[in-house]
Specification:
Strand content: under 5%
Order of helices and strands: HHHH
Number of domains: 1
Radius of gyration: 18 Å
Oligomer: single chain
Helix content: over 70%
Structural class: mainly alpha
Amino acid sequence: MRAFMEEWKKARSEFGLKKILDAFFGGWMFSSLIFIPIYIILGEALLVYMYLLYTIVVLMILVTMGYVIVFLKFSKKALLLKKPESQINLNKIFFKIMLYLNGLVLLIGLIFILFIIPRLLV
């Protein structure tokens, strides 16, 4: 964790907070343009096929993990386009962020599957 924080501080000092936030905003916008229709389709399928509730929730968890991956790929690409001569290894930073966020998505999804959905179906 200490090495990750040191890399993050180097990236923040090299790119600046405004450029990093701009890259995250751009990654969020473009990945949302891709994934909002997928969420709408899964929501409609959930309404129609309620008996496949657990299967569709698992698909939503996987789609959300894909959303995180695409969001971070777009953000990394935006940072590389802002400063191509950067010497910082952004792959290592964004891979650790991806692991943390996908673990959080998986944990929230498992809470939904194991605790929230059974209570709603009673």
